[in-house]
Amino acid sequence: MLNISEFNSLSPREQAALVLEQGRYLHHIIRGWCKIDLYWFHNYYVEVWFLYDLKTIGLVRALTNKASLDPYLETIKLRVKT
Q1: 5, 10, 36, 40: which is deepest, by most CB within 10 A?
Q2: Strand ranges (DSSP E) for 13-75?
Q3: Phi, psi (deg, nearest 5) at residue 56
Q4: Nearest CA among 76, 20, 73 for reference residue 46
C-alpha cells in the first residue's frame, strides 16, 4: 500500500496507471475543458484530470485536505476522514 508521499514521488504516468487499475471510482465533475474523476485509492482520494478528448490525462492529484473534496460534496455524499 502506497502512502501519499510515495504516491506523489511516482511519475504522473505511473500514478495514473495505478489509480485506474487499483482505485475505486467514485464520481466525476466537469471543470472547463476537463472531466475530473475522483477515486478512492488505498486510504486517500485521488483526482485524475482528463482533457477534453477524454483520452489524454492532464493531471493526477492526491487530495490532502477536506476542502479539496468540496466540489464533489455538492453532488454526492462521501465519508471524509478528518
Answers
A1: 36
A2: 24-31, 34-41, 44-51, 57-63
A3: -105, 130
A4: 20
Q: In what order do the strands lie in the sheet with 44-51?
A: 24-31, 34-41, 44-51, 57-63
Query: What CA–CA distance (Å, rounded) separates 63 from 70?
Result: 11
Residues across the chain: 82
Query: What's this model's pTM, rounded to 2 decimal places?
Result: 0.85
Q: What's the rounded mean pLDDT across residues 49-63?
A: 90
Distance of CA 36 to the CA centre of its chain: 7
Which residue matches cell numbers 511519475?
11
Q: Report pLDDT digits (tens) over 4-42.
A: 999 999 999 999 999 999 999 999 998 888 999 999 999
